[in-house]
Amino acid sequence: MHHFHYSGPSLQCEAVDLAAVARLYGTPTYVYSAATIAENFHRLQQSLAGLDVQICYAAKANSNLAVLRHCANLGAGFDLVSGGEIRRVIAAGGDLQASVFAGVGKTEDEIRLALENGVFALHVESEPELARINHVAGKLGVKAPIALRVNPDVDAHTHAKITTGRSDNKFGIPLKQAAGAYEVAAKLKNLTLRGVQMHIGSQLTTVAPFAEAVQKVAPLVADLQANHGITYFSIGGGMGIVYKDALASGAQAWWDAQPAAQRPLTPEAYGETLTPLLAPLGLKVLLEHGRFIVGNAGVLLTRVEHLKRGANKNFLVVDAAMNDLVRPAMYESYHEIVPVQRDSSRRALVADVVGPVCESGDCFAKDRQLQEVGEGELLALMSAGAYGFTMASRYNTRALAAEVLVNGSAFELVRQRETFAQMIAGEKVPAFLQ
Ligand SMILES: Cc1ncc(COP(=O)(O)O)c(C=O)c1O
Ligand SMILES: N[C@@H](CCCC[NH3+])C(=O)O
């Protein structure tokens, strides 16, 4: 559920007219709803009520400082995958002592930064990494708290590029080798064994793969608790969101109308299945969801440049492009596209919605049915709060978009649109070319 809805003809985020945001800050602009983030966060927390749960929000989904601070204020720690993300949490005033540092290729500098700032644990992806962390911790004279990321080889039934828990993915230590790797870790004197971690993929739409993975890894967790005194089990992130009916799914009525067997995954169903599997372990549970918390909490506002009538199809050219939101080009993913001013008297238009980038893949939607819209009118690409801005690039020397956070009837620019001067600030023409 989320807080994007029409008030009469106008699309609003909470109590703010999206047209007003575009007038003030231009387009393309990402707009996030603070209330939606808070609601998702609380629902997730409630879903495993009764267990000792810490949400480590996956900052890679949306790492704007305002979003991080909002999550921190709600009680989140963070799941971080780079020194840059660690520094972002520090800059946002978040709690690193409730945060974990993951990733298959942590550098020595990044490990040092994590340890110096007292992260809750490092999530280790391989035996060579254990040795590296042990070495850095030794130089600092500290003990590094670690958990091994275990790869349970479970099919998450999601897009091949975002599945992470199969044996042919680069992530984690195969379950069969995990006990041995823990024995290796236990012998390294600068490490403290603190937990077990797993993550099987992103945009999971059923609870079954989560349950299968928890059941596969639970015996190892119980063993390590008995023999090494570990205190937590991180079951990763990955809860999927509704993309296809993105606008309608903001309302309770939409959920009520879904046949029970086809209802999208909810935190309540997730908690109902996983609580009985996790409770007997008696350990702290870490959740690392990103998309579920912020995905439906954001839209990308864009303006129509032209309607171009081609030989056999229409192209609606907008001012956002694949550099702003790469998901459709990268994963063929679906984002609902809606007008900011709705007008039911307009004729229907079927068009490819495309950006100005010089690639045929720069296409947000193929043969999409929309209301007829003309030059200068605004559209919203829904469910763009996760892996939207954080995956943006400057391809075609296009500036990074602006970001706005809405809270009730208030809204503020939380990232200025990049200027050309900022884009080229680190570049120079060398003397030998002058
Ligand atoms: C280790 C880890 N934790 C958390 C996440 C967040 O996933 P999601 O945004 O699907 O919840 C990811 C991304 O897939 C991940 O690799
Ligand atoms: N970037 C992906 C999700 C990857 C999650 C990170 N391991 C997406 O946009 O769906």
From TrEMBL:
| GO molecular function annotations of the record | diaminopimelate decarboxylase activity; pyridoxal phosphate binding
Task: List the active site.
Answer: 358 (proton donor)
Pathway stated in the Swiss-Prot or TrEMBL entry: Amino-acid biosynthesis; L-lysine biosynthesis via DAP pathway; L-lysine from DL-2,6-diaminopimelate: step 1/1
Tell me the cofactors it needs.
Answer: pyridoxal 5'-phosphate
- UniProt-listed InterPro entries: Ala_racemase/Decarboxylase_C, DAP_deCOOHase_LysA, De-COase2_C, De-COase2_CS, De-COase2_N, Orn/DAP/Arg_de-COase, PLP-binding_barrel
Q: Which GO terms describe its biological process?
A: lysine biosynthetic process via diaminopimelate
Where, in this chain's numbering, is pyridoxal 5'-phosphate bound?
238, 288-291, 387
Q: Where is the Orn/DAP/Arg decarboxylase 2 N-terminal domain?
A: 35-247
Positions modified as N6-(pyridoxal phosphate)lysine? Answer: 60
Chain sites annotated for binding substrate: 291, 327, 331, 359, 387
Query: Per UniProt, what is one Pfam family of this protein?
Result: Orn_Arg_deC_N
Assembly and binders: Homodimer.
User: What name does this protein carry?
Assistant: Diaminopimelate decarboxylase
Native source organism of the sequence = Horticoccus luteus
* Originating gene: lysA
